[in-house]
Specification:
17 strands; alpha/beta; globular; binds zinc ion; nine-stranded mixed β-sheet
């Protein structure tokens, strides 16, 4: 069975998340977005785990559904841990996603981790625990658990991060590396960037939203064609089979918050080659630059740009629908017009991913405007330009940039911003 999965989100018990992140709302928004399997996130948090046990019931083995009514959405038990520890004489800060096959396994993991740190403080707890030790604890609880390094390239909190990461999975996980089957590429990198590292050839590249609020669910996701149960999903993550792992849904990586280098407070964004010219020192404040994902990938890459490994899983780059609408009609994402067209498209065409990936130009046009339809088509064709994000600032996407509009003037009906 073909389904779309987003494994990494956060509940209302994580820091800086929306108070609306509860199970009922997650279920409702998964439907709007077109996600079939959603990670619960935050299962280490006692109150969230209570809700999971109280409000969900078993569905297919290892998956869960709402007790109050089956919308078709399935939940899978996942959580994220922030490991902060010293290894090799450096402070490491690494976020790890854990998948668990059962409530029992979660009970065991939570018991063990609660002896190490305070699980109540944050849905994504900070533990003074080596990522390798975490892997051991999780696999001891249940051998079918999975451990996946989160947003593997972000500078501050990731396995390859420029500030506190490692140069290889082996350096981080030692003898446990063989249990690391996948990494999450994060919003600021896409599979093509990761293909430049031969050390990742055996690793599955997965993508998740890491949503902190409901509308962000599914902004990155994984499309599988396998049995709908925990075992089926785990098998896809453990092997690398393009018949079962069809593709990932990606941001344009430039839109992510850490694609380029720079300093947010100095209002300075630099490409890797520009940073090099400044020896990675900010020319405005004299402090070291925050080295972004693109630069870090180039540092560790052993292949040229554009390299395609043999068993690569394909991907599709998308822009969130509200952003496409806003950009197409030249208004702010928060404007009433945007939500009007958004709701109309979802109501009549099914889900956000359906609209972004499958609906025809004619269908979209009929439920919104011709310029919105042509914006979506342009996105599918990759005809967009992006001002890259840096040091925590999201990139700015342009579907109808000056340059593109002039080049393709005849293809764009009623492009309002032009006239
Ligand atoms: Zn994280
Ligand atoms: Zn997260
Ligand atoms: Zn600076």
């Amino acid at each position: 069975m073909k389904f779309v999965a987003d494994f990494h989100i956060h509940s209302k018990y994580s820091r800086a998340t929306s108070p609306l992140m509860d199970l009922e709302n997650l279920d409702r928004w998964a439907k709007i977005k077109g996600i079939n399997v959603l990670g619960t996130g935050d299962f280490t948090h006692p109150k969230w785990f209570e809700s999971i046990k109280k409000e969900l019931e078993p569905a297919e083995p290892g998956l869960f559904k709402l007790k109050t009514g089956d919308s078709g959405i399935r939940f899978i038990l996942t959580s994220e841990i922030s490991c902060i520890y010293t290894k090799g004489g450096k402070v490491r800060k690494i976020h790890i996603i854990i998948f668990a096959p059962s409530i029992d396994a979660v009970e065991k993991i939570n018991l063990k981790l609660s002896q190490i740190g305070n699980l109540k403080a944050d849905g994504r707890p900070i533990l003074g625990l080596d990522a390798k030790e975490l892997t051991k604890i999780v696999l001891d609880a249940d051998e079918n658990c999975l451990v996946v390094p989160a947003h593997a390239w972000t500078p501050w909190f990731s396995v390859f991060g420029s500030k506190s990461g490692f140069n290889s999975l082996e350096e981080c996980f030692d003898e446990y590396t063989k249990y690391i089957y996948a990494i999450e590429t994060g919003l600021s990198s896409d599979p093509a960037m990761n293909w430049r590292l031969s050390q990742l050839d055996k690793i599955n590249l997965i993508s998740n939203s890491d949503a902190h609020s409901l509308p962000k669910i599914g902004r990155e996701a994984n499309v599988f064609d396998t049995e709908l149960n925990y075992k089926g999903i785990a098998e896809v993550l453990k092997t690398k089979d393009s018949k079962k792992f069809l593709y990932t849904i990606e941001f344009f990586p430039e839109e992510g918050k850490y694609h380029y280098d720079g300093h947010r407070t100095c209002n300075l964004s630099l490409s890797p080659s520009q940073s090099k010219k400044y020896n990675n020192i900010c020319p405005r404040c004299g402090k070291p630059l925050v080295i972004g994902v693109l630069n870090r990938v180039e540092e560790l890459a052993d292949r040229p740009e554009g390299f395609l490994p043999k068993n690569a899983i394909p991907f599709k780059s998308l822009i969130p629908l509200n952003e496409v609408i806003a950009e197409s009609i030249g208004v702010s994402v928060l404007s009433k017009e945007v939500s009007k067209y958004y709701n109309n498209l979802i109501e009549n065409l099914g889900s956000e991913l359906k609209v972004l990936l499958e609906s025809t130009e004619k269908e979209i046009s009929e439920e919104s405007l011709p310029e919105i339809a042509s914006g979506i088509i342009r996105m599918r064709e990759g005809k967009v330009s992006v001002e890259p994000g840096y040091d925590g600032v999201y990139g700015k996407i342009k579907i109808f940039s000056e340059k593109n509009s002039l080049n393709n003037k005849n293809n764009i009906p009623n492009q309002r911003t032009l006239f």
